[in-house]
Amino acid sequence: METKDPSTLSSWKELQEMAAGFHLDLRKAFEADPGRAEKLTFEAADLHVDLSKNLLTEKVFEKLLELAGQTNIQGLLEAMLRGEHINNTEDRAVLHLALRAPEEKVGSLNVDGQDVVGDVREVLERVYAFADSVRDGSWKGVSGKRIETVVNIGIGGSDLGPAMAYEALKPYVQKGLECRFISNIDPTDVGEKTKDLDPETTLFIIASKTFTTLETLTNARAAKAWLLAGLREAGAIDESEAQTKDAIAKHFVAVSTALDKVAAFGIDPKNAFGFWNWVGGRYSVDSAVGTSLAVAIGRDGFEAFLSGFRAIDEHFRSAAPTENVPLLMGLLNVWYVNFLGAHTHVVLPYSQYLHRFPAYLQQLTMESNGKRVRRDGSLVNYETGEIFWGEPGTNGQHAFYQLMHQGTRLIPADFIAFARPAWDLKDDETEARQHELFLGNFFAQTGALAFGKTVDEVRAEGTIEELVAHRTFPGNRPSTSIMARELTPRVLGELIALYEMIVFVEGAVWGIDSFDQWGVELGKAMAIDLKPAIAGDSAALAATDPSTRGLLEYYFANK
User: Fold this and answer.
1) Segment 497-545, tens digit of pLDDT
2) What is the rounded distance in angstroms from the CA atom of residue 236 to the CA atom of residue 242?
3) What pLDDT was estimated at residue 1?
4) Strand ranges (E), 252-405
5) Quick count: other Cβ atoms within 10 Å of Cβ 222?
6) DSSP state of 172
């Protein structure tokens, strides 16, 4: 597709003019338009989304939608849905939406000679059969005991997605089953995650598409050594090759398409679940990468999870631009980044179960849109990407909200909350429901950020003059509020898909390839090149740059 420089478009230039000296007083905006909240609140599947506290006027709204038309977001979406190779730097289709396509769509999408949905459903059925066998106890370890702990070993999207989703959906996890996640090559990670486990009841999922990822394979070998040592110590197996092979086959499965390497590791290739080069790791939690989640919440739970993705996919495809939540949120982010000078974006889930959601979004957003060239290779001359960060609930209030309320930075914020808690506890002292106390903070913080506290209001409270400036809050700090009835597998799928589409919108406007990640590769390649120097090879050490050489010398002296 044609790559446009958005900064040359009339809508971009008009937005620049609007942004010059832009100031929106949110108090006055709500006073002038009592219907503002209603006009800027939308439904997207099960999500109730209030955009009214954003720095958005009717003229900005109209011009952002014009920018969406001039950058042909709809055309890029249609090309993606057709299976065109919109990931042009890797010459690949981008088909993560096919991962959640329903069974009746089998045969409806043929790309590069493959029935994409048919392939997806075939793998899903194999994942479900495996998950069922672990859940019902028919899959047994080498000593005949049922599996109690599933340990996922992966990194990047092969860890962040399933780990986040497992934490988010703990109320739906089958009793007697636990999942753990190992990603860091730091030996502390594998050591801590396995130290209290019983190898006879532990099963490992090794998630690596190529089965060559350095961190994942290193940790997989450590897990294999731990398992075999523990089984032998317990007398479950002896030192024979046959029993060793049987133990690995019954305690390891793979998420990979490199069946030869899977087999060389000792995993039965029939217990390897594949995925495809048209899905990036950060978009893969609803593929076989989510096998650990499928084991934890079961076939029905995982299908509900997929249904949430589908609901937002359909909303994004079919909703009118003026009511299209992912489109509007993506365009708002462009407004803040490119015209109002924001550099970061905070995500604040008022749910402890979503404590890993900001970390998940960091990869999704920053790996996708952290680009400095457009699809045609030309350098951008405008900002791209945002630094995503966040913490759950009131934890963040006692950490960094000071900067948000009274600092000098513009920090757009997304607040996420649920009407119904998983734990409906009561505070005996105040006789209040704890969830109501919690949500009180959710409601109050968005209002406080938007409307602040004026000098006159501070003085009216009897504040001494010397402290008035310190206790004044300027307000006009933008936020989006996202609510749902409760955090279910379906709603989690909707939240993930919402941010996937926001990323898509931003990338389409900026004219960048949101689906490659060349920036991830350089550090990994250099780490491999440094292996001889780290091992003490003097020639390799001498060839390193002075700074690295100095650090290595410190390491040698102190290891």
Assistant:
1) 999 999 999 999 999 999 999 888 777 788 888 989 999 998 998 999 9
2) 13
3) 65
4) 252-255, 272-273, 344-349, 387-389
5) 18
6) G
Active site residue 53: no
List the alpha helices (DSSP H) in 99-212.
116-135, 157-168, 187-194
Specify the residue for token string 């589908």: 310
pLDDT in tens, 155-206: 999 999 999 999 999 999 999 999 999 999 999 999 999 999 999 999 999 9
Q: What is the DSSP annotation of 185-230?
A: SSHHHHHHHHTT--GGGEEEEEE-SSS--HHHHHHHHHHHHHHHHH
Residue 34 exposure: Cα atoms within 13 Å on the Cβ side: 0
Which tokens go with 165? 């989703």
Contact 412, 336 (CB under 8 A): yes
Q: Which of 293, 82, 115 is nearest to 207 (CA)?
A: 293
Looking at residue 101, its amino acid is: A
Please name the residue ranges forming H helices in 33-72. 36-39, 58-70
Facing residues of 527 across strands?
none
303 is catalytic: no
Identify the bridge partners of residue 373 per DSSP, sorted by sequence position.
Answer: 379
Question: Which residue bears the tokens 């030192």?
Answer: 239
Owner of token pair 């046959």: 242
Q: Is 367 a catalytic residue?
A: yes
Tell me which of 167, 200, 215, 367 is the catalytic residue.
Answer: 367
Q: Please write down the long-range contacts of 500-503, taking CB distance under 8 Å and 24 or more positions apart.
A: 500/96, 500/283, 500/364, 501/312, 501/313, 501/316, 501/326, 501/327, 501/330, 502/326, 502/329, 502/330, 502/333, 502/365, 503/330, 503/364, 503/365, 503/368, 503/369
Distance of CA 532 to the CA centre of its chain: 35
Give the tokens for residue 90.
């890797």
Q: How many CB atoms within 10 Å of residue 483? A: 17
Q: Please identify which of the residues 398, 431, 461, 466 carries the catalytic annotation.
A: 398
b/e burial code for range 172-182 (CB count within 10 A of at least 16 → b): bbeeebbbbbb
Q: Is 530 helix (H, G, I), strand (E, B) or coil?
A: coil
Q: Is the pTM of this model over 0.90?
A: yes
Of the candidates 13, 245, 524, 531, the residue annotated as catalytic is 524
For residue range 109-123, list pLDDT tens digits in order.
999 999 999 999 999
